[in-house]
């Protein structure tokens, strides 16, 4: 973290206001600006897309745990992998414990079939305990052709995960098979490389 960003976030926390003043707080899905959110590209969403996302998309947060897209939050920077000691443990994974998993499990109760498409990074999804979920967990993998072979390239994979999440929202996906129909950003589904829980998508550029 650069000194400028460290200073910015120090002041953010010093000036923290629990009241969600509309002038300061914004919907979570509009508050984040990382590569995954570039791929999510909510500028293309309709009002109905936002409504559907509010019911079906969840955002993992080091500060808030689990957020709905339209939950209002203040700007902050606190990565899930931050080694922040609290009374609950030495890092945020120990701080959140089972609560994130329990929240997601409760959300899945109203869904049939119970399918969780994981578009989060490994750092964030480590806060979820899949074996405690009574659901099928699907984690798409995105590989780009590089030096004669297909590899995960961080920047591209992050954007692709966001694009996948956006596509699932906009297409109103209802089944596990829907995931394999994704063709965004030039990726194509590879049946040969895929398993039921890890659909693989390739891009040649």
What does this structure look like?
The protein is an alpha/beta fold. It has one domain. Helices cover 35% and strands 16% of the residues. The protein contains nine helices and ten strands. The strands form four sheets. The protein has a four-stranded mixed β-sheet, covered by helices on one side. A two-stranded antiparallel ribbon has the order 1-4. Strands 2-3 form a two-stranded antiparallel sheet. Strand 5, helix 7 (122-125) and strand 6 form a beta-alpha-beta unit. The protein is globular. 23% of the residues are buried. The mean pLDDT is 91.
Quick synopsis:
The chain is of the alpha/beta class and 205 residues long.
Give the helix/strand layout.
Elements lengths: L2 H12 L11 E2 H4 L3 H6 L6 H10 L2 E3 L3 E3 L4 E2 L18 H5 L2 H10 L6 E3 L4 H4 L10 E3 L2 E6 L2 E3 L2 H17 L5 H4 L8 E3 L9 E4 L2
Parallel strand pairs: 5-6, 7-10
Antiparallel strand pairs: 1-4, 2-3, 7-8, 9-10
